[in-house]
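FAD binding domain-containing protein
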Amino acid sequence: MLGVGMAFPIIFAVECLSSHSSAHFIPTTRAIPKHVADYLFIGVILGYAVPTLSIFLIDDSVVKQLAIFLFQFAPILVIGVVKACACLDGTAFQKQTEDHKEPLTKDDDTRDLLGLKNFYKRMFAVCASIHFLIIATMLITNGSLSRFFLPRNIYDTVNSLARGSELFFQADVVVLCLSMAVWGSVAVFDVYRTGLSNVKPLDGIALFLVGSVIVGPGAALHALWAWRETLMAKTSFGRVNEV
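Predicted structure tokens:
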């Protein structure tokens, strides 16, 4: 880990210096299959949300262990749910026209964009609702963010599966929130340095971080992703013509 921590900043700096072109940043095959965009929300809910909730809402230890096991395979579950829904709907085997257009053409194929926008809107609503529910719970119970999300007494003996799940969840949430802050900040910087956006990085990052506090990190990241998607789909242009 020390090696990665020392090497990755150098790799990132070199990548930034060598990838200023928007043609380098945006592949010509950006569009995902339409059925994936249409059923992505269902896949995330059934593949991620249901196993996660099962870990904490079910008291039976056997079922809880099964939920923890399934949680490890969440990415595969999401793909499976999306494929299953598409097959039932008959859209998985529809021929998809390949995108051979040059980057940055306004006639680029955006057939997946409506489904992705709907996905981001739904995820924004879900994440923001959870954020406000947590805040309301803290206000009602006189709790605090540290009590909810920061692990305490991590060196104590874990005497129950429920306590182990709590520590597992708290550690994941802390790392995930930090990761989303970095991920979103890098995304704002990337679309600016490649000329796709005219939003100054510091302004965009500040807005993203403030939004993370107001509506929650998950909702803020999905809003950022929806904006970034329109830029990468060439439906909205920033400084492309200037570079």
